Amino acid sequence: MDEYSPRAPLPGSGADVAVVGGGVVGLGIAWEAARAGRHVVVIDPAPGTGASFAAAGMLAAVSEYHYQEEALLGLMLESATLWPAFAQPLAAEAGYLRTPTLCIAGDGADRQALADLRAVQEAHGLEVTSLTVREARAREPMLSPGIAGAFEIAADHQVDPRRLIAALLARLGSERLVRRRAESLLWDGARVAGVRLDDGSELLAQETIVANGLGARDLAGLPVQLPLRPVYGDILRLRIPQRLRPLVTATVRGLVRGRPVYLVPREDGTVVIGATQREDGSDAVSAGGVYELLRDAQALVPAVAELELYETVARARPGTPDNAPLLGRVSAPEGGDVEGLIVATGFFRHGVLLTPAAARVCREVLEGGNGGAWKPFRPDRFAGLGNGRPISHPLHGRSS
Ligand code: GLY
Q: How far apart are CA 202 and CA 195, in angstroms?
């Protein structure tokens, strides 16, 4: 990869690349483009405060595998393999940890549901390792003696999205950040020429990348309707008292009476517990959701009851009909693709994991490629179709 040397955008003459959206995906795309030598600007009134602010940061290609999502699985696995190189220049700042994931069954029925998922994972050649309850508790002594089964996924790691955001913003530099809301695309004939901002000013760019998650629904002038819908999640952050550290060393994903829950331990002595999945239209934290997450996390790790609950957050994930992103160029009515426009949204539960892949795909498209193997994720693939609903999955079908 080319070395990144800071180059400020050219005032007046516009940028090479304008990225709308300063979440993990937008910043990752911008950073990759900057490292490829482009003049990049990121447009966001409040970077890192959307879905990225809530995200636990599980890099869970294997444990998030969803039955019949083979194409998405390919993108997730590729992105998982890109993560070490993506994180390497950010050093320890981004909180990238190659700790494993333990999948835990709360009771016999949960064990059967996880066994079914595991069989599908193994059929796809994904490495999972059975553990007896004794073995799981030898690794993680705080696990409840009442758990009914466990397996390990060594390939599913984690990053801290808030630290990642800070690291990417620092790398990009404040001169690349425009703290404004993008209101509409600017068109120059048949090509996109930049964006109009909420103060009425125009920001010209050779290429505009729409990477603002659900915010893309409010961006005027898009040549395609993006089938995005908000899938809300409640997520909790707790502090572990010294006497209980480490609470767990691996990410713990459990199924408790059919309800999924995860615990992601951080290096700083905190743990993230998530997440509900609801489509009730409410961006307020759900009391029932908090209660259920704590109840189910305690069923797996009883000492959760002794932690300090210091933050509850709700945010919406940008869902799509097939749970896969909307990524790439958009067809023009007269044939070919709309010039000057790339879409990168709809990452649903997988934005953090898929950031390096999204950055790679966008870079390839910027360099004249057509998205290669990732053409199936083009943003216009639903044109003319109704908005379907995704099917559920044992480890992430929780709804409150
Ligand atoms: N990526 C996990 C979640 O969305 O809850």
A: 6
Eight-state DSSP code of residue 232: E
User: Does ligand 1 have an atom closer than 6 angstroms to the CB of 58?
Assistant: yes
**Domain residue ranges of the chain, discontinuous segments joined by +:** 98-155+230-319
pLDDT in tens, 328-380: 999 998 899 999 999 999 999 999 999 999 999 999 999 999 877 888 899 99
Q: Which residue has the tokens 């945010």?
A: 315
Name the closest-CA residue to atom 2, ligand 1: 349
252 Cα–ligand 1 center, Å: 13
- Predicted structure pTM score: 0.93
Render pLDDT for 271-288 as a digit per residue (tens, 0 to 9).
999 999 999 999 999 999
Domain formed by 98-155+230-319, architecture: 2-Layer Sandwich (3.30)
From the list 239, 248, 221, the residue with the least C-alpha distance to 343 is: 221
Q: Quick check: 24 and 352 in contact, CB under 8 A?
A: yes
